Amino acid sequence: MLEANNLVKTFIRNEKHNTKISFNAVDDISLRVNLGEIVGIIGPNGAGKTTLLRMLGSLMKPTSGEVKIFSDGKQISDGTEIKKYIGYLSGNTKLYGRLSTRELLVMAGTLYGMPETGINERIEMISKILNLDSFIDNRIEKLSTGQTQRASISRCIIHNPMLYIFDEPTLGLDILSSNAIVDFMLREKEAGKAVLYSTHYMEEAEKLCDRIIIINKGKIVAEGTVNEIKEKGGSDNLREVFGNLVGSKEDWV
User: Fold this and answer.
1) pTM here?
2) Which CATH number does the domain 1-85+163-170+192-253 belong to among 3.40.190.10, 3.90.226.10, 3.40.50.720, 3.40.50.300?
């Protein structure tokens, strides 16, 4: 579904005395995500997770390297067409507060070129999956944090994409909202979709992921199944493994 080869993203940082320093937020990362699997990206804050996901989601151009999206064995090269295959959730997505979730979904579906009947049918399906019924017609600016996050996810999935890229989708949510999102990811995996997401929650990653990629300072430091990662990190506890491989306990959850 998705293949990334030798991705590099270089930024310029302004320092004191008008000096500038270049650094690689992502430094030569290659990975692959297949249909029917959930792949977790974990790492400390500042490791390059969000920058990596933005490049994979075609929202940011890499300094070098390439990202390929495939459908039925054929590479999709048109930028507009690629977006139809991806549902991307950012950690800082802003929604139109004066719209209701239903109005937001109608607008998003229209932008994706969906027919009106298809939009309405999809909204009813999404509402049941993410438990939106109690607030779907309320203004987004009046929703709780968990409700807003579910509204945001519903916007990402209205067009029924084959690949989901979620940047910390359950961060700061209550148990019910978090469970609804976790259950959704598992359901989409069973439906043959691909899910790529970042998280700080080790227990969540261990429960959900077919494979885990640990990154630090822009580089992959470990990749594999949960058991393979544990073996490499020398512990049966994923938190300890993370510490052994990354070498820091800052920003753990």
Assistant:
1) 0.88
2) 3.40.50.300
